[in-house]
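tool=predict chain=A
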Amino acid sequence: MSENFNPCILIPVYRHGKACAQVVDNILQYNVPIILVDDGNAEETKSYLRGIKEKHPAVEIVTLPKNSGKGAAFKQGVIFAHEKGYTHLLQLDADGQHDSSKIPLFIEKSKASQDKMICGYPEYDETAPGHRKNAHAFANTWCAIVTWSGKIVDALCGFRIYPVEPTLKFVTKKMFDKRMGFDTEILIQLMWMGVDVEFYPVKVTYPSDGISNFHAFRDNVRISWVFTRMFFKMILVSPCLLWRKIHK
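tool=predict ok
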């Protein structure tokens, strides 16, 4: 890897201790530093995280004092990654739903386009719940509207590589949804900040015995509220969006 490209993997963890332990075992082969963020977990999950650390001492763990949501956990992970000198971070969900074999491809694409977000879009199998697919379709439509961009293939998939510098500016200087609206909002706001995006497919599986932190009604309301805020903010940033459209 080149001197100015130093990636890491960031995994926010809430209630997925057992699954996360398997995820870590699966991705160690790629020799990319791993940062886990303990999002105020109960003792059962903390014990799994301690077990991961004992088994793999090089894995870093950042601990939040109470559960604050994926966005808040991501923020602390970004700050920690920046302090450690990482230039890019691959966000990976702790529940094992994403095909981790795509990590080398995403690292390669990020190294080739270091100023861009490299994002996954889900390739579903028969285990995917209908409400998840509907939520993705809804989010994709609105994301395209508020970014003035046809590049948005998926607005919710949590398998992404972010360049650390603009991401740090976003998480430390802007207000944003700290929970399930986070993946959508960071994509929109980083694109508004001028960060371009590329999408590649990632297989997604929903195990029947998996623990889900997604609540269909509550979290779809949160995502809808994100788009309401982003729509009105879009009006304020529209001169900038228009300027970029003209100059491209």
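The mean pLDDT is 87. The longest strand covers residues 117-124.
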